Every structure is written in structure tokens, then in C-alpha cells.
Amino acid sequence: MGKGVSHGLQRDRILRAAAQLFAQRGYHAVGISAIQEAVNLGRGALYHHIHSKEDLLYEITREYITDLAAFAEQLDADMDPRERIKVLGRHLVLKIASHQAELTVCFRDVQSLTDSRRAEVVALHSKYEKAWREVLVDGADLGIFRPYDPVVLKGVLGMYFYSYLWIRPEGMVSPEAIADRLNEMALRMVQP
């Protein structure tokens, strides 16, 4: 295995371990020594792969919100708004279920980033929210949704986002079934 490949794999392993620790304990409660222990690396070896604990937080939060925003932006604007909500909702719930630790960190710990990094990640969150807002506005313009209301948008997004607290990928209700239920509730919230 080449040095670049092993470095990348090691970095991914560190990111996954950090996300698990941050999700379980909270970003501020996790020290570098806990990350070292989780990945079984000494301080020098760990710092060979990372620059700081905040770098880990930044990479985790940026990667997952970037992915969500990119997915939302590529949806066909001519798709029926009801279907777009279903596609967006399903993608979000399945992403949370498959990367629960990372999305927990993405939604909960973004305020722990410093200045420009926080601004960048918050802007990505806004970009994702804008895609949802456009769906609600398009539906309102077509007369199939009630007039756009920013409080309803926050309520809809919050319903999906906070599933990171309780969703259990291996639970009695599958992530797909949870997505269907949340989508049904979201549509009831926006339809006249």
C-alpha cells in the first residue's frame, strides 16, 4: 500500500473516531489523548495526520453539510415540489442514519468552530436551508403549498435534523420508514 493511501486511510480512521467521541461526549469534553487512545496512536503519530482537534471538527462538519447541500442543489427544479421534499427528506434521514456520529457533530457542534471556519460551515448550512426554502416557495407559487413561512421551514428542517438524537439505524423502525413518516408530516405542515 502506498504511503499516500495509508495516510488517507489513517486520516479517515482518525476522523471517524473523533466523530464518535465528539458525538458521545461533546466536542469540548474530548481531549487529544482520548482521540490518541481511540486510534491507538501516540501524540507524534496523531499529529502527523492532523494539525489540531479543531481541524477534525472542521473537516467533519464541512464534509457532511457540503454533501447535503450538493445533493439538494442537483435536484431538478422542475420536479414536483412534493416529490422534491420526499427526495430531500429521505436523503437527509438516510444520511443521518448511516453517519449518525458525523451528523450529530455537524448539527450540534458547529458553534465550537472559530471565526472563519464557523462562518464557512454556517454558510453551507444556509445554502442547504435555501434549497429547502426554494422547494416551499415553488410549491406555494404553484398553489400546492401554503404561502411560504420561515417558521414552518425551521420546523420542517428541525424535525429532520433532530432525528440524530433518537434514530437507531438497527432499530425496530427502519430509516426508510422513518423518512416516509417524516416526509408525510412535512407535507402536512406545508399543504393548505
UniProtKB/TrEMBL annotation:
GO terms for molecular function: DNA-binding transcription factor activity; transcription cis-regulatory region binding. Residues 31-50 bind DNA. Residues 8-68 form the HTH tetR-type domain. InterPro entries: Homeodomain-like_sf, HTH-type_TetR-like_transc_reg, HTH_TetR, KstR2_TetR_C, Tet_transcr_reg_TetR-rel_C_sf. Keywords: DNA-binding, Repressor, Transcription, Transcription regulation. The keyword DNA-binding applies. This is TetR family transcriptional regulator. It comes from Cupriavidus necator.
